[in-house]
């Protein structure tokens, strides 16, 4: 590197900063400067492509980590106390000893943070070393480089299914039109393909100089868009890389949610602080009164060097701070670290649960929120999307109506359901194999059995134009991308999951998930393969094509020839939504095959074999306001401008020709509407198909307005929508379709189980009411015996009672109430004057179904219920329209489905099936909450029971803040002897087995509301700690009173009794013993005696030298320890005995059932559940204990006020 003066370096650095800050970048190719020194590179001012998501560096780790940790007020508090102990007048014990607890806590937290950061470093290293192909002027070909070595100004080649290493400018593709398609699922979660074009005006020639000049001109005058190509051969120019890419610049970091348990914990910490200050005030006043009660100055009060002695009031003021230092353990300094360790262990068990693994998608549950696992056990309301969450979101064509005539496709309906489905599928595939010699792709969208009546109609001559237009609309009016079946893309949800799954599973903190969000500039590419590439050239398991030849591919343009026609059987369709794929496959099944699509044309093969190439004049994309999309094409034969439109039924019906038109059109519209209503009642997703023929003058006039709207700078979106609405009028109805979105496996059982667990289930969907209600009955959200309240703007509230009075069991009972409401009515009810009344009505309903709601309304409903009812909420969805709802709830769960990864990226937990919610909440949620709640309560008890021994001793030492236990042993007591058992208790304890929690969902209700961790349980434990400390102190005191033992000989049995009491107290609380619990508890006792004995032997200057050894040869020591421990634990033991025998809770009964044989236990559960189903309103008469709050819930249901 040549020498440069400091001033030159400063000028170069400032020039680089100015170049990076410019909105317009002037880039120069690196090819002529290849191999030159860094200071001679034209693009040296721009950052490298290396990604760094770590928070710390090796050099500055300690100061930066301490700075982060001191954001916690608790750490500042304990550091302040340790510093205060260095002041001689308030010193409670050796200053160095006071630093040990906080230093150990800071060190443990630093080790955890370093481990997390090291995981990020390894992930960064793995990403930065991924290979890519960069053109080399020396080698005259593309050479393999690592991602971090890519520089601004390099030419990069990206092949099919490759990941893009940086933000690239598309220069050339193998497509003659310069078009490619990308998938940005790792960037924004969207799995639909996006179309990109090469920069116009770029000429790729043999001369590298020409390339440089033209590219330089383009970059100076053009706009640098986010273009990621995906055809077989593509050249790009790197213009943004590393931390300058849009993915890194848009990274805001993960959201932080505080659990309800953590909020309650902070309140109890405040109570402990108040209790500590009360005890310190008592000590200060006691010291003052003790000094005032003395007739003269005692000899042991040594004055200062100048002979001055502090007054009693000043001395008591100093003792206040000394007492704070002495009793500081009352505030659990290690509790927060212990909670984090417990949550890591809980997440480990959740992520390694095989029942939460989905074999079809090869995906496990992802835990992205470390700090709210316990909230899974307190959920009271679940808000769920329908499409893709309750259903598969794999659309299958079921029925259609064309020109007012309905074609039910009965065989296709029988093919999709029933016990003979597998046999029918087998027969169907055999028929396909006989006629086509090949099997169709294994996708539900392609499973279409033709309706013979419709097939004969197409082959006939009657109304052939209308039927042809219907299927042409299905094939044309979409955004489906066509490629060969051999070039099918690899979806990110499968490939990246397989690539990084091992790292995700081995990291309970899920740091890689946040890393993927931060370093999300990867973009999955796909490309059609030319017919010259055979299937044998492709690697298996979805690997990239032509990887071996990538290094020798030249930058120069290959000769273009006319590719032969692609057989229809080898076509592959990539659609933005499953609905589009189902309709295109249906059109293909009837002979209208979508052959190719370019930005300017679309080619369709007719049943006769002839191909029609339509010129695409414009595409009016779908939006949530219009609820439809249109494609304007020019017919290749008639040269007419035809507008094909598809959309929601209500959005199309109101745009048809005036009712004063032909009677036939009115009859077709009426019959089609009846068919649509029938489809909706069957739970099918409906779409209307329409067309419009425009004259040339009308089209030209509209095209001018369209161009003005596209070129507008102000209010552009509204002008574009207005132009679309202007042309989408006076449509001619062609027909309608009904597509089935089947329920996922075990959805009805999951909904019923969640409801039995005391969880209110709401479904918020954008579907029409008829479809949503049908799905509601199918998934058992609504029952046939329910009293259904349908609310709409037309008739604000009317009742629909279905088969309620016909059942004799419903005599003298109040039926369960369900509410169905549409989006417009919901908007009215969300107004301030009706909001409270709506919440009051909804909370008395067993289930609520909201239809035709927008994403914003979903989030508003969640916020309203959470804030008004003060309940724990969970939102679950799978698409981008569910993100607001997921983020508004206390816990957001994303489902990795067919609508992209936006919901997963915004969620706290990610699952692959709705049925996984059952075990996630009822088992893991219950365990996480129960374990953590009991562990926190035990932690407060443990510290209070130990520190109160020091407090009682102050009454006998003049409140001088002295201790009868050695300071080192006091530190070891909390750091070594009693630290690990509560952590193991919080990770591994099981109050009830998973089988019982799933078999009796009512057990989940014990965690709802206040749950096990409440104001009452906290203060009961604190009072128990005070009682045990009194017993542990005064029994040895009265035993040794009048003897000649010193204070350390008196403190040794106190410390031993406290250890035995605390550990045996934990043994009483443990519900499920394992070898780990036994080993930890016995190991803690053994460690205590070993350390205390070794400490007493080693330090000869220790005032308690050989103290424990002398105590252990005295039988009185063992007798005192035994009697004190038994008396101290007797109330706690009697409380558990009475609780488990007289007033048995459901949890206790469930533990009793766990002791039975599995067959007997399962039979008992089955009989009890069946009996409860027959006598649902009389569960209190069942011999088994009723579910918590079940009677209250039924009383609330009977008091419904409408």
UniProtKB/TrEMBL annotation:
SUPFAM superfamilies: Calcium ATPase, transduction domain A, Calcium ATPase, transmembrane domain M, HAD-like, Metal cation-transporting ATPase, ATP-binding domain N. It is found in: Endomembrane system; Endoplasmic reticulum membrane; Membrane. Keywords: ATP-binding, Endoplasmic reticulum, Magnesium, Membrane, Metal-binding, Nucleotide-binding, Translocase, Transmembrane, Transmembrane helix. Its cofactor is Mg(2+). It is an enzyme of class 7 (translocase). One of its GO terms (cellular component) is plasma membrane. Residues 904-1142 form the P-type ATPase C-terminal domain. GO terms for biological process: phospholipid translocation. Residues 1177-1202 are annotated as: Disordered. It catalyses: ATP + H2O + phospholipidSide 1 = ADP + phosphate + phospholipidSide 2; a beta-D-glucosyl-(1<->1')-N-acylsphing-4-enine(out) + ATP + H2O = a beta-D-glucosyl-(1<->1')-N-acylsphing-4-enine(in) + ADP + phosphate + H(+). Mg(2+) binds at residues 385, 387, 878, 882. Belongs to the cation transport ATPase (P-type) (TC 3.A.3) family. Type IV subfamily. This is Phospholipid-transporting ATPase. The lineage of its organism: Eukaryota, Metazoa, Chordata, Craniata, Vertebrata.
């Amino acid at each position: 590197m040549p020498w440069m003066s400091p001033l030159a370096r400063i000028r170069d650095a400032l020039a680089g900063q100015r170049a990076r800050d410019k909105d317009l970048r002037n880039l120069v190719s690196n090819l002529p400067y290849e191999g030159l020194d860094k200071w001679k590179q034209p693009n040296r001012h721009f950052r490298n492509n290396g990604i760094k998501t770590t928070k710390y560096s090796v050099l500055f780790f300690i100061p930066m980590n301490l700075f982060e940790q001191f954001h916690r007020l608790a750490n500042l508090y304990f550091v302040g106390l340790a510093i205060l102990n260095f002041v001689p007048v308030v010193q409670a014990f050796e200053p160095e000893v006071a630093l040990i607890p906080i230093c150990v806590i800071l060190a443990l937290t630093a080790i955890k943070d370093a481990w997390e950061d090291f995981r990020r470093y390894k992930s960064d290293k793995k990403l930065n070393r991924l290979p890519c192909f960069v053109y080399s002027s020396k080698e005259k070909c593309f050479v393999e480089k690592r991602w971090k070595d890519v520089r601004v100004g390099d030419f990069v080649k990206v092949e099919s299914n490759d990941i893009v290493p940086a933000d690239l400018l598309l220069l050339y593709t193998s497509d003659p039109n310069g078009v490619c398609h990308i998938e940005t699922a790792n960037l924004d979660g969207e799995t639909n393909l996006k179309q990109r074009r090469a920069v116009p005006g770029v000429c790729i020639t043999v001369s590298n100089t020409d390339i440089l000049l033209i590219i330089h001109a383009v970059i100076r005058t053009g706009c640098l868009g986010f273009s990621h190509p995906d055809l077989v051969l593509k050249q790009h120019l790197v213009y943004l890389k590393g931390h300058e890419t849009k993915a890194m610049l848009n990274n805001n970091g993960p959201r932080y949610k505080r659990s309800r348990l953590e909020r309650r914990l902070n309140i109890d910490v405040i109570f402990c602080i108040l209790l500590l200050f009360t005890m310190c005030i008592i000590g200060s006043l006691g010291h003052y009164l003790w000094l005032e009660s003395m007739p003269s100055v005692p000899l042991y009060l040594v004055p200062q060097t100048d002979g001055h002695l502090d007054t009693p009031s000043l001395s008591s003021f100093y003792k206040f701070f000394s007492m704070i230092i002495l009793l500081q353990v009352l505030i659990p300094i290690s509790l927060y670290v212990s909670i984090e360790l417990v949550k890591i262990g809980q997440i480990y068990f959740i992520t390694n649960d095989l029942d939460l693994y989905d074999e079809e998608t090869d995906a496990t549950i992802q835990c992205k929120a470390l700090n709210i696992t316990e909230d899974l056990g307190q959920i009271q309301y679940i808000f769920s999307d329908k499409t893709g969450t309750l259903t598969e979101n794999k659309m299958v064509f079921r029925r259609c109506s064309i020109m007012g005539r309905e074609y039910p496709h009965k065989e296709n309906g029988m093919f999709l359901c029933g016990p003979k489905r597998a046999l029918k599928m087998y027969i169907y595939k055999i028929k396909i194999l006989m006629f086509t010699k090949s099997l169709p792709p294994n996708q539900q969208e392609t499973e279409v059995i033709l309706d013979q009546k419709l097939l004969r109609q197409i082959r006939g001559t009657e109304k052939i134009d209308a039927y042809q237009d219907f299927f042409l609309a299905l094939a044309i009016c979409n955004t489906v991308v066509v490629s060969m079946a051999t070039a099918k893309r690899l979806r990110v949800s499968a490939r990246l999951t397989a690539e990084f799954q091992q790292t995700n599973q081995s990291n309970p903190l899920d740091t890689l998930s946040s890393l993927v969000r931060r370093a999300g500039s990867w973009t999955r590419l796909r490309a059609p393969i030319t017919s010259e590439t055979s299937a044998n050239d492709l690697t298996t398991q979805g690997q990239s094509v032509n990887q071996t030849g990538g290094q020798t591919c030249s930058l120069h343009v290959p000769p273009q020839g006319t590719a032969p026609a692609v057989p229809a059987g080898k076509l592959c369709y990539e659609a933005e939504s499953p609905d589009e794929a189902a309709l295109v496959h249906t059109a293909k099944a009837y002979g209208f095959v979508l052959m190719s699509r370019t930005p300017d044309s679309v080619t369709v093969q007719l049943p006769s074999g002839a191909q029609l190439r339509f010129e695409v004049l414009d595409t009016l994309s779908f939006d949530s306001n219009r609820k439809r999309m249109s494609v304007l094409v020019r017919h290749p034969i008639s040269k007419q401008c035809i507008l094909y439109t598809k959309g929601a039924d209500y959005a199309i019906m109101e745009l048809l020709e005036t009712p004063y038109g032909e009677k036939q059109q009115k009859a077709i519209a009426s019959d089609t509407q009846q068919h649509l209503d029938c489809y909706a009642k069957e739970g099918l997703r409906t779409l209307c198909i329409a067309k419009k023929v425009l004259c040339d003058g009308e089209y030209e006039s509209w095209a001018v307005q369209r161009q003005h709207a596209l070129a507008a700078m102000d209010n552009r979106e509204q002008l574009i929508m207005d132009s679309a609405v202007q042309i989408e009028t006076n449509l001619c109805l062609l027909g309608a379709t009904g597509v089935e979105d089947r329920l996922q496996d075990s959805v009805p059982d999951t909904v019923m189980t969640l409801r039995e667990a005391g969880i209110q289930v709401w479904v918020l969907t954008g579907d029409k009411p008829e479809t949503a209600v049908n799905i509601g009955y199918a998934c058992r959200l609504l029952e046939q015996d329910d009293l259904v309240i349908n609310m709409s703007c037309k008739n604000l509230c009317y009742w629909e009672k279905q088969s309620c009075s016909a059942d004799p069991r419903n005599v003298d009972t109040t039926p369960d109430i369900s509410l169905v409401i549409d989006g417009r009515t919901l908007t009215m009810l969300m107004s301030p004057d009706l909001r409270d009344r709506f919440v009051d009505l909804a909370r008395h309903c067993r289930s609520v179904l909201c239809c035709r709601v927008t994403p914003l309304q979903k989030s508003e409903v969640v916020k309203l219920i959470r804030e008004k009812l003060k309940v724990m909420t969970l939102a679950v969805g799978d698409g981008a329209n569910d993100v607001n709802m997921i983020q508004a709830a206390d816990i957001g769960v994303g489902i990795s489905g067919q609508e992209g990864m936006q919901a997963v990226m915004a969620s706290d937990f990610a699952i692959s099936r709705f049925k996984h919610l059952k075990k996630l909440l009822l088992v893991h949620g219950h365990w996480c909450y129960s374990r953590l709640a009991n562990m926190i309560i035990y932690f407060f008890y443990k510290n209070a029971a130990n520190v109160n021994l020091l407090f009682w001793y102050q009454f006998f030492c003049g409140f001088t803040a002295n201790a009868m236990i050695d300071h080192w042993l006091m530190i070891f007591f909390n750091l070594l002897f009693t630290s690990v058992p509560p952590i193991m208790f919080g990770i591994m304890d099981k109050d009830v087995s998973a089988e019982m929690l799933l078999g009796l969902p009512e057990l989940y209700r014990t965690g709802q509301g206040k749950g096990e961790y409440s104001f009452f349980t906290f203060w009961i434990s604190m009072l128990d700690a005070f009682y045990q400390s009194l017993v542990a102190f005064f029994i040895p005191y009265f035993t040794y009173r009048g003897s000649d033992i010193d204070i350390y000989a008196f403190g040794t049995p106190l410390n031993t009794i406290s250890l035995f009491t605390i550990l045996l107290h934990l043994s009483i609380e443990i519900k499920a013993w394992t070898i780990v619990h036994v080993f930890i508890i016995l190991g803690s006792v053994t460690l205590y005696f070993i350390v205390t004995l070794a400490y007493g032997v080693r330090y000869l200057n220790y005032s308690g030298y050989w103290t424990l050894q002398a105590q252990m040869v005295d039988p009185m020591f063992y007798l005192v320890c035994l009697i004190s421990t038994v008396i101290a634990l007797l109330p706690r033991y009697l409380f558990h005995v009475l609780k488990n025998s007289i007033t048995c809770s459901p949890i206790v009964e469930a533990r009793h059932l766990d002791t039975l044989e599995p067959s007997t236990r399962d039979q008992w559960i089955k009989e009890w559940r069946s009996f409860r189903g027959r006598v649902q309103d009389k569960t209190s008469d069942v011999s088994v204990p009723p579910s918590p709050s079940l009677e209250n819930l039924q009383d609330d249901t009977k008091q419904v006020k409408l």
